[in-house]
Structure prediction request, 133 residues.
Amino acid sequence: LVEKILRIQPNVRKLYLLVRAKDSESANVRIHDEVLGKELFRILKETWGENFDSFISEKITPVAGDTSYEDLGLVDDDLKTQIFKDVDIVVNVAATTKFDERYVSTIILLTIFLYYLLRPRASAKWLIVIYCF
Prediction:
C-alpha cells in the first residue's frame, strides 16, 4: 500500500508509519529493512534514481508506537500533536502473529485502537480503513 501510494500519488504530503518498535531509531531501521528494502520498491527506486532516499525521507516518517496503547503508544508530545493535526486518513494494517489466537482478541485489539485514536478527537474528520489478517 505504501509503495502504491508513493508511486501513484507522489505529491502526497506525508505518510506516518506506526511501527511496533522500542524507539524511533528502531522504527526507522525496521521500515528501511522490512519495507523499503523489498523488491516491491524497485520501480520507485528506478523512477527517482539517486533522489530515492531524499524522496522517501521527505514522504515517510517512521513512528515507534503500538495500536493497543493510549495515543498509539506515542511518547513524543510534539510528534503526537503533529500527527493528530496532519492526518486525514488512517489505514490500520496491524496484525497479530499468533495464528491460533481467537478472532475476539483481534476484534478487541481493533476496537481499542479506534477508541484510543478517536476518544480525544471526537470532532476529527478521518477516513479509517482497517485491514484484519
